[in-house]
Design goal:
This protein has 228 residues and is an all-alpha fold. It has eight helices and two strands; from the N terminus they run αααββααααα. The termini are far apart.
Length: 228
């Protein structure tokens, strides 16, 4: 009479824990290998992009040299090109955007992570994630058709009267400039700053956050009593 093998019972696994441990160890090694390959692939793609840019820019580097980064002339007819105005504009608009977006994003993240009710925090976080998914061209169009007229007729003339001694607010008020570009860029990056800051705050255990807040309150009370 043929016999069939019996199914494994829980006592079999408890009797032989090494096989189960070896099985889980193999799965962890496979997951570690997959994630390592994914991370290495990203680094490889970045290195290939840099390599391709360097190779295909050989003719431009041979003709213009490093003066391409420090000259202001941009004359396609004469074949003279300089990237300094574009580099300067990028740095200035990025600085303006960070000055506006970082305080707003960090403050909103503190409110959503520490002070807001759970339902309100969830709803506003969902809205912030939706704003992060909006394409940049939409922000650009909104800036051109909505922000530029307001900057040209209201904001820039007022800033020019009060802060006209600064280079950022000098020149004719066309509505298009470093400040306008910085505001549009700030609106674009606020959702990312908020999301990252909120995740960092939530990564800290709540009891540690509450203990830190209690310590700050006690320090303020002690300082106020000392001043009195």
């Amino acid at each position: 009479m043929a016999t069939t093998p019996n199914a494994a019972t829980p006592t079999d696994f408890t009797a032989n824990p090494r096989s189960l441990l070896r099985r889980w160890t193999g799965a962890d090694e496979i997951a570690h290998l997959i994630t390592l390959i994914a991370a290495a692939t990203l680094l490889l793609i970045t290195a290939l992009l840099v390599y391709q840019l360097w190779v295909h820019s050989a003719e431009a580097r041979a003709k213009f040299g490093w003066s391409f980064f420090v000259t202001k002339t941009w004359d396609p007819v004469a074949g003279d090109f300089g990237a300094l105005p574009f580099i300067y504009g990028t740095l200035v608009t990025s600085a303006v955007a960070l000055l506006i977006a970082v305080p707003l994003g960090v403050g909103a993240a503190i409110f959503l992570a520490e002070l807001a009710p759970p339902k309100l925090s969830t709803s506003l976080t969902f809205v912030s994630d939706l704003l992060a998914a909006v394409p940049s061209v939409i922000y650009g169009l909104l800036g051109v058709f909505l922000l530029v007229p307001i900057m040209r007729t209201v904001i820039q003339p007022a800033l020019k009267k009060t802060l006209g001694f600064l280079p950022l607010f000098q020149g004719p008020s066309y509505g298009i400039g470093f400040l306008t570009a910085g505001i549009v860029l700030a609106v674009m990056i606020v959702p990312f700053v908020l999301s990252v800051s909120r995740e960092v705050l939530l990564a800290v255990p709540r009891d540690q956050r509450e203990a830190a807040l209690a310590d700050r309150k006690s320090t303020r009370l002690n300082s106020s009593h000392a001043n009195i």
